[in-house]
Fold:
Amino acid sequence: MTNYVFGPVPSRRLGRSLGVNVVPLKYCNFNCIYCQLGRTRHVINDLRMFYPPEDIIKELEIATRTRDYDYLTFIGDGEPTLYAGLGKLIQWARNNQDKPLAILTNGAKLIDENVRSWLSELNVVKVSTDAGSEKTFRLINRPHREITFDRFIEGIERFREIFSGQIWTEVMLVQGVNDNEDEMKRIGNTMRRYKPDRVYIMVPTRPPAESWVKPPTSDVLINLARVLSRYVNSDRIFIIDYIERGEFHIDRNDPVNSLLGILKIQPMTIEQVMDVIKRNNLDMSILDEIRNFTKEVVFNGIKYLVYSSV
Ligand code: SF4
Structure:
């Protein structure tokens, strides 16, 4: 059974976020070295109708009526703007529920006029800016061959011209790749072009696609935030170097699928999964069932369960 809607889950940026997963596992136009979903299996850059929008709307109708959330967030097991039915879902959400709407996207499809028009109906569009140059862009995001760094930034810039909501951007810092002052100055110059409302400086906190990926140390992080504040007002810069705390919502009648719906989007620590089971007074044997669909990965000394479809 497919679960398109999951949570709400605690989000480091959006509070209690009710997620809508619109893309199957690892269809993306990037193949980021730090991706918590693993390496991209299908690097594509064309829009596809992965699922019938009506099926997703059916789940949304129930979830938006029965669950308590702060944001309705479009997301994917890959890049959500590659879903050809996204515009229809956004329209539905605009007309049928009253919570703010967000999307977590890498931003590369904003070069497409249709995608800009769909996303202009949202309240928050979170894009990624991990690089300030073509060279680092290719190293860290490993984009589809059609995507160049200039076109990528041009898309976000064009979107800024028509969008009255908030653009948030995330800079994921990886030790030895983009955690140096020169790259941060280039990233700062890039941000001057599209003026983000918020910048989140992040570090990998969950198991990454490439096992050699490491977060920078906290003093490097603080120094780079200082460098960036020459380009973006410091009250718009936030450092996030911790794992979310807070409650994950699951459907008590279908706990395994519900938990797997969350795990498809983000690895959870074993403690987090056990905490959900305990809080819902469910049997611990559920953990064994979850283990059949996940593998255990240790990152930064912490054990995670990572969804694995094979
Ligand atoms: S982090 Fe996001 S943009 Fe990068 S490969 Fe993973 S899903 Fe795609």
Notes: The longest helix spans residues 53-66.
